[in-house]
User: Fold this.
Amino acid sequence: MKFAAKLLASTLFLAATAVAHADVDAALKALDPDNDGTIDLAEAQAGGKAKFAKLDPDKDGTLDAKELSGILDEAALKAADPDNDGTLDEKEYAAVIEAKFKAANPDDDGTIDAKELASPAGQELLKLIH
Ligand SMILES: [Ca+2]
Ligand SMILES: [Ca+2]
Ligand SMILES: [Ca+2]
Assistant:
């Protein structure tokens, strides 16, 4: 049982890294200005700010479903939109990043390392910040 679980875990890890390895390395470099090999929440939010600006070419300060396509689906947008105006402002976007950051950081050490970034939760976070 223990062995099977271990095997499953490493298989999942290998599958995730095979797909995402190159992307993860490049993204980690871009998002890690202090170059310690991990992304902390401040670095994630800085990446999110840049991504938000990129996604909001009309600079009206909000992202609508169209601007968020491929990043958040309709259900995720709804969940991230407490004022229910159909768009995310920068504060709402930052809250999503914080939630995804937590989800991608199961060891709760305050940083996302390359392995965590390659996980499914890490990939979801990456879409928001890179
Ligand atoms: Ca860092
Ligand atoms: Ca909103
Ligand atoms: Ca971690």
